[in-house]
Amino acid sequence: MQDGDTIQIAHVVRDMETAMRRYHDQLGMSPWAVYELKPPLLYDSLVRGEPSDHTYLIALAQHGNMQYELIQPLTGRSLYDDFLEQRGEGLHHVKFYYRDCAAALRRYAERGYTVVQSGRIDEDEFHYLDTERDLGIIVEIGNAGRIRPPERWFPG
Fold first, then answer.
1. Please, which pLDDT band fits residue 156 given cuts at 50, 70 and 90?
2. How far apart are CA 148 and CA 34, in angstroms?
3. Where are the alpha helices (DSSP H) in the chain?
4. Cβ 149 vs Cβ 32: under 8 Å
5. pTM above 0.70, yes or no
6. Which of 76, 107, 132, 145 would be 124's cystine partner, CB 3.0–4.6 Å?
7. CATH annotation of 6-154
8. Are 58 and 151 in contact (CB under 8 A)?
């Protein structure tokens, strides 16, 4: 991967099982690797600069060269909850790879984009930027770090 490569497209959903089934049946996307993200798997979690204990489900599927992610908020408050309330289900963010996320964050900050949500999962770090007003979506940057095997697969 090269810095700046698009590596993921993510949608926020209300019901993970229904969404995975829909993507599987309509677009042939599968298998989905499913995780429940909560401490200690999810750590250093911040929402609008404040520590957060929100939890959520994610499902990841590779489709061609692109990773698709489905996100269902469970507890606490996050950007995902805000998105569902304001827009309903749909495209939430596009993720770009950066080997050195700290350097990338400095470059985005120079353009006026601050981090609105971030966290870590094993060796993976992610940062959502406040690009929605300019781009209509949130830009996520991350290092595509290694994470543990999923808790389950869909379809089973």
1. confident
2. 11
3. 16-27, 79-87, 101-110, 132-135
4. no
5. yes
6. 145
7. 3.10.180.10
8. no
Query: Do 98 and 11 touch, CB atoms closer than 8 A?
Result: no
Residue tagged 């995780």 (tokens): 35
* 62/143 Cα distance (integer angstroms): 17
Q: What is the pLDDT of residue 64?
A: 87
Domain spans, the chain: 6-154
Q: Per residue in 83-113, pLDDT tens? A: 999 999 999 999 999 999 999 999 999 999 9
Going along the chain, which residue ranges are E strands?
6-12, 32-37, 42-47, 50-51, 55-63, 66-75, 90-97, 115-121, 124-129, 138-142, 152-154
Structure tokens at 154: 């869909």
Give whole-number Cα distances, 59 to 10, 34, 99, 100, 130, in Å: 10, 4, 23, 25, 23
